[in-house]
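Running co-folding for zinc ion.
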Amino acid sequence: MKRWFIAVTGCVLWFVIGTAWASVSRVSVLVHLEDPSQKAFLMEYTFQGIDSGTLKVAIPTWTPGWYQTMPYSEGIRDMQAENERGEPLSIQSVNHYSWRIDTGGAQTVRLRYRVLAREEGMGFFGVAMGPHHAFINGAAAFVYEMDSKNVPHEVRFRLPVGWQVATAMDFASQSEQRPFGDVRDTFIAPNYDELIDDPVQMGHFDVREFRARGVPMRVVFASETGNILCNMDRITADFQRIASVGIDLFGSAPFKRYLFIVHLSGRGFAGGLEHLKSTVLNVPDRRDLNINALAAHEYFHAWNVKRIRPKVLGPFDYTQPVRTRALWWCEGVTDYYAYLLLLRAGLIGDRDFWQEMEREIFTLENNPARERVTLEEASWNVWEGNGMGYGGLSYYNKGKVVGFLLDVYIRGVTGNRKSLDDVMRFLMERYGYPKPGFEEDGILQAINRVVAQDVSALYRRMVASTEPLPYDEILKYIGYRLERQSTSTTYFGATSMVDEVGRVIIQAVESQSPAFLMGLRAGDIVMEVDEEPADRRIEDVVSRKKLGDPIKIAVWRRGSLVVMEGKIGGETRYSIRLTPEPTADDAVIRVREGLLRGTTRVSAQAGVD
Ligand SMILES: [Zn+2]
């Protein structure tokens, strides 16, 4: 009921936005920073070509790439508006994220406000500032006119002397010789979505540049102290190899330039956030820093999630959580590809790849949430979860394992003629931004099309059920077996003593333990266990039982006999090993090699590697 309601609201909203006339024809923003010790930017907006009596201005309630509500409006202060004659206009707060400006018939309106730099460290989701650096993640700083998200937005910067700007935004005088703009440039985004999807690093930082298959790329290293330990040249060389194999996979790059912003900081969120043609990687600095897997994940997002995406992930509704069942594909499968890119770039070996898959399967198989929550549920409910999934199930983890199994399956059933790469390329061609995103069954349809058969049953088992994953059915295509060894520990949660007259008395019961849940309480006198007279401590009885064994206890409590039944709790840990079958034939070995080298029979015949 709730899901349906939300889905319908979403559709209606898009219909309205899609057909509404923009109230404004052009939006320009000056990002002004005079003194970083003030810990705030002054934002000066000019709305031109206004044909409406009111402007509805809002700040997002979340940022693309992180599916949690963010309190961005708390950083917006001192909002003021005036017309072209400098006369003040009235502003009313509509709700916690939007305001209404009465234009009084003005065709040009200037809006000023301050954005507080409230994020610690170098910044990630929000706005951060220090004596020599500042960072803006667009959703935290740029407001939008609610009917004018699709008009061009222009940005200029006025910063302290000597400060630089790094962003992947387009700019007026871009050329082959000057692919990235700098602090003097006027930057241009075709719409608000793109404006806020190019984060901006400001201040002093180190820069490395390279080309990957001809596409200009830049790595910016920024730290709070300016004293950098990591090997920037080695990291840059690795990024170049990752970037190249990513472009090879799709045949071309969907961006004119790409920017890696590396924040070397032990503070704030540790990780990476994807953007349309850039990424921010926030990691503690160290001499032997290796962020290849993180960088490959975020870089692959430039295709998968920034362009190949479910409908709700662009154009965006920033006013409320947007839901999709496909985040496992956006995140988990992206992480599978991160390791494929590293393998294809020669930055890890086959053994590292198998170990990574073993680690992920180990994590999944030892997580009891896999028996309660499906991948689709973990995706849909992430807003009520922790940003990684829901109900204890991470869609990064299970999504990655499912991505691996899907790749093996597709290669297996097509005799290595097709692979998950073909599904990616199909999705990119069919739905790649700026085309509209895919419907909720879009991934299944794409796989069916690539494989040329209906794989619904297998797909639903893996993503829409809690059934065990069909490891051996699928791994046989590459001549592998999943070896699983289990060790169980038991847990009951009650302690007892035998008193001087031989009575067994419960001393303590842990809350929510199996003993507690079956009704046992401190002070109970145990009369019988499993219909035998009690003559020893309850712990000694339990220690002879196994996980899941039934137990029946009769106790004397406040003058009456209470009989209760329950089960021994505990957990089973599985160790996981992916083992090659010694008897695999040549056809199977070819599929296995295809997986590891990123080739299919088709690409091998065409001489493409
Ligand atoms: Zn991601």
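Result summary
Residues 274, 297, 301, 331, 334 surround zinc ion (CB under 6 Å).
The domain at 493-567 is CATH 2.30.42.10 (Pdz3 Domain).
Job closed.
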